[in-house]
Amino acid sequence: MVAVAVALVAGGVVAWLLLGRGVQTTIPDSFDGEWQGMNADRQVLTATLDKGQELGSLASGANGCYNGALAVSKATNSRLTMRFTPVDPSECNTWTVVFTHLSGGGLSMTVDSDSNRYHETDFIIRMNRQGLSG
Fold first, then answer.
1. Which residues lie below 8 Å from residue 12, measured CB to CB, with a gap of 6+?
2. Closest by alpha carbon to 36, among 5, 62, 3?
């Protein structure tokens, strides 16, 4: 009976180490900072991601639907998946946003719109860190 309990605990620890290692729900150090990129409509988007926080923000001076909160869904040092909720969700789409590191120090921001309710298409933009890193 004790051997079975030990085997179950050991199996659980191994599974946790293999499946859960490095996954978190806060912004990893590697994504810390202010990141900017330009979409196809030449609108500058700024993502502010503060390490250790559960929320970041996205802003654009040109389009109110690109202003809102980014909530961490799942994060590793190489991939950050977030949920975007615009300031006015009754007028704008919510999104799934995935940030991944690119060679050369930039980020890829992939946006998957939850619907085309407002005729918005999915898009990908390159973002570059602004100022000094945290």
1. none
2. 62
Residue 34 is part of which domain span? 24-130
Nearest in space to 41 (alpha carbons), one of 125, 100, 112: 125
Model pTM? 0.79
* Residue pLDDT, tens place only, 14-28: 444 444 456 889 999
Which CATH number does the domain housing residue 121 bear? 2.40.128.210
CA distance 6 to 118: 55
> Total domain count for the chain?
1
Q: Is 70 contained in some domain?
A: yes
Largest CA distance in the chain: 66
- Measured CA to CA in angstroms, residue 83 lies from 17, 25, 54, 65, 105 at distances of 26, 12, 11, 14, 23
